[in-house]
Amino acid sequence: MTTPxxxxxxxxxxxxxxxxxxxxxxxxxxxxxxxxxxxxxxxNRDLAQRFVGEGYxxxxxxxxxxxxxxxPTDPRDHRVDFYAEQVRACLDHLKxxxxxxxxxxxxxxxxxxxxxxAPERVLGLFLEMPVMEWSTTxxxxxxxxxxxxxxxxxxxxxxxxxxxxRLPRPRxxxxxxGMNALSAEPEVxxxxxxxxxxxxxxxxxxxxxxxxVPAFVIGHGGDKLHELRDAxxxxxxxxxxxxxxxxxxxxxxxxxxRLWPEIQEFLRDLRESVVGRxxxxxxxx
Length: 285
Prior knowledge:
This protein has helices at about 45-50, 80-95, 105-115, 135-150, 155-165, 175-180, 185-200, 205-210, 230-235, 250-255, 260-275, and strands spanning about 5-15, 15-25, 30-35, 55-60, 100-105, 120-130, 215-220, 240-245. By secondary structure, it is an alpha/beta fold.
């Protein structure tokens, strides 16, 4: 078990929308983690507490359309490159110059997009289950029917979502995050899926090869939406990357003991590499 740490929440304005975040810890090397598709910051809460124990101050951002952030229903507001700009805006709001950036699935590719557009703001990358070239075909196969079903079945999905909102949340944050995703209004779900499908997914390989910062990549086999081949390819491309193979996409959430020692080593190595130079101004707002 991890020891509970100080947590505070806040919001900021970006392009006319309100975005929500949580900050774990009062000091340390800045880190910003992003959730997966349709999920929210609850998914990374346990991870944030663990990172704090290694000397990090962790920001959990709810992207537009997710969690406690505003939920516009226009697909043009939802693209991975736009999400990367929200990461930049959050760091600006908190007066953080550089951070370890990443997340899981959608969060991983958002982190990659951010590293492509703002490399000077990146101390390192923590990329869990990236969705890249080997995964995008299955992503389209999976998400397009979901988009159609939710879009044309609003009369069925809306009462289901309202029912889910009334249910008590379990103690496991990852499960509560999944329930929150199922509680979203159908117009929000279709807007997010539509926007992500038509926008860019990851930076091109040439830009990925230029990301010369410490990087930790987690992948696993048996999941066509998060192909292990993508994680392996990314580790070959990133100059300072290391790979950790998980047994499933949920292993780090439900049974992290096998994975944590290698993550801990990466966090300690990164912390040691930045000792003696500014790691970011104190959070504010």
